[in-house]
């Protein structure tokens, strides 16, 4: 589990670093209006990906990890459901391209959406491979593929410069699709030796109903997450001037940093907790969940706090001083994306028990509330829209935490709460320094400052006892097999579990 978490964090870092490199290039190469078109296309694709991505991936991960069903049957039926969903969205993008242009007030979007349609089936197959590896807890393979794809995707930059200098949007689409196809071919080759690792199951069949419900239920939840994090960009494109869409896209790119990082925790927690619950090791499952949440607030939340506090410097250094217009929006979006990432992890913890009713209800209520809220708040500008997003994600996170505590147990230890207090102090200090005494206009220099501040902050957490490195390492130690085949976590792990139960 420890190795899987580290590798998936690395893959997510590679994902957003590569994405930022591409956006940094586009922000300087294309006009704000063209950059806004890129942001619009990517936003719509992100929304569609969650129909064809997380649903199938998480369903495969949970059902293979539980060892209740025959792994081959799980894959075949989930893949069939996935193919039907992919077909629907391909047709929506390809045949309905003129409607997108009409809805978003830009008739030039038609052909862009037709080309983007081919990214949907490629992504659908890509995530099926990730889900199979996650279910087998071959997290290293998943992490490799998730790292390889964004690195290859960087080829989009020379592709635009050399082949599509006058059509940067087409260059982005071709580059993304080519990188994904190459990753799929490598992933399929890597899965061939894993066929013997698929579970035979305990004789319980995997009905089509479960394949559809599992995939669609996870999809519904991640659709909600996508809408909350992405539909505001579409609202800006439809309701405000084109340049504001470009500025808001810049803010959103940095705002989503912590959400991408937290996906690594969500990928790990679902199969691990599912397996432990299936083995009736609920205490160990809760201990591992508490350890993960401590890391979330001690290692990831400081990033959100730093980005929020220094938003003007970050946008001006990365893009240009004009993008500082979106700094108040970024200050809110940094926390909005973090809150949604925590909401995802909380609901993956709940769904490990195969009961998705709460997540389904949360998704439906959010879908009914968020879109009208964003449309109404957009009348007052991008800052008001970002404030609405932050309020919506905080509410979803708080409600999810209450439900997890009721059904599963309290995943927040005293150390996790202490980490939140330290994060608040960090935000105050960075905000005061950024606005009064320290301004960095060079992006590389700003990244060095961020690294120094982050390293010092983590060192302080270790020094004051909020982060117990040895305890966390023992908690995430790989379970071993006794001579009789029963799984144990070792003496160190059992002691750590006992401490966590006492509220450490």
TrEMBL record:
Membrane topology reported for the UniProt record: Multi-pass membrane protein
Query: Any stretches that span the bilayer, and where are they?
Result: 5-26, 32-53, 74-92, 112-132, 144-164, 170-194, 215-238, 258-278, 290-311, 323-346, 358-376, 382-404, 416-438, 444-466
InterPro entries, A to Z: Poly_Biosynth_Transport (IPR050833)
Q: Which UniProt keywords apply?
A: Cell membrane, Membrane, Transmembrane, Transmembrane helix
Q: Name one GO cellular component term.
A: plasma membrane
Primary location group: membrane
Is Lipid metabolism one of the keywords UniProt gives this record? no
Annotated region Disordered: the residues are 483-504
The listed locations are:
Cell membrane
Among PANTHER family, the record links this protein to: O-ANTIGEN TRANSPORTER-RELATED, PST FAMILY PREDICTED COLANIC ACID TRANSPORTER
Annotated protein name in UniProt: Membrane protein involved in the export of O-antigen and teichoic acid
Q: Which organism is it from?
A: Bifidobacterium stellenboschense
């Amino acid at each position: 589990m420890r190795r899987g978490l580290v590798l998936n964090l690395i893959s997510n870092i590679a994902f957003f670093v590569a994405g930022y490199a591409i956006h940094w290039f586009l922000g300087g190469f294309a006009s704000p209006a063209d950059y806004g078109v890129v942001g619009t296309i990517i936003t719509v694709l992100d929304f569609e990906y969650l129909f064809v991505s997380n649903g199938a991936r998480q369903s495969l991960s949970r059902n293979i990890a539980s060892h209740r069903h025959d792994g081959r049957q799980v894959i075949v039926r989930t893949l069939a459901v996935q193919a039907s969903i992919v077909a629907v969205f391909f047709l929506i993008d390809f045949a309905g391209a003129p409607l997108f242009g009409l809805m978003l007030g830009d008739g030039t979007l038609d052909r862009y959406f037709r080309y983007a349609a081919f990214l949907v089936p490629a992504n659908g197959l890509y995530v099926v491979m990730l889900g199979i590896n996650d279910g087998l807890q071959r997290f290293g393979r998943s992490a490799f593929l998730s790292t390889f794809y964004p690195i290859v995707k960087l080829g989009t930059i020379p592709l635009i410069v050399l082949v599509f200098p006058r059509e940067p949007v087409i260059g982005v689409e071709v580059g993304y699709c080519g990188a994904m196809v190459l990753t799929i071919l490598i992933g399929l080759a890597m899965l061939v030796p894993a066929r013997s690792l698929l579970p035979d199951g305990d004789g319980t069949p995997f009905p089509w109903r479960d394949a559809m419900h599992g995939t669609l239920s996870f999809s519904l939840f991640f659709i909600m997450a996508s809408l909350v994090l992405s539909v505001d960009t579409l609202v800006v494109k439809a309701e405000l001037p084109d340049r504001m869409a470009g500025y808001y896209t810049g803010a959103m790119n940095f705002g989503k940093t912590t959400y991408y990082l937290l996906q690594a925790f969500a990928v790990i927690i679902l199969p691990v907790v599912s397996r432990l619950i299936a083995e009736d090791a609920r205490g160990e499952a809760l201990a591992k969940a508490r350890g993960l949440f401590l890391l979330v607030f001690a290692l990831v939340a400081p990033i959100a706090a730093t980005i929020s506090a220094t938003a003007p410097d970050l946008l001006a250094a990365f893009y240009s001083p004009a993008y500082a217009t979106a700094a108040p929006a970024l200050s809110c979006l940094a926390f909005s994306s973090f809150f949604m990432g925590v909401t995802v992890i909380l609901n993956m913890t709940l769904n490990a028990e195969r009961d998705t009713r709460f997540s389904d209800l949360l998704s439906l209520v959010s879908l009914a509330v968020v879109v009208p809220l964003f449309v109404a708040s957009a009348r007052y500008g991008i800052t008001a829209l970002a404030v609405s997003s932050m309020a919506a994600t905080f509410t979803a996170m708080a409600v999810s935490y209450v439900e997890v505590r009721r059904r599963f147990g309290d995943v927040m230890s005293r150390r996790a709460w202490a980490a939140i207090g330290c994060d608040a102090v960090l935000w105050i200090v960075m905000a005061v320094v950024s606005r009064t005494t320290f301004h960095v206009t060079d992006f590389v220099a700003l990244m060095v400052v961020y690294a120094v501040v982050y390293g010092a902050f983590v060192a302080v957490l270790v020094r004051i006892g909020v982060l117990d490195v040895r305890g966390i390492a023992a908690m995430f130690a790989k379970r071993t097999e006794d001579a009789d085949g029963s799984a144990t976590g070792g003496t160190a792990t059992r002691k750590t579990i006992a401490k966590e139960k006492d509220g450490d």
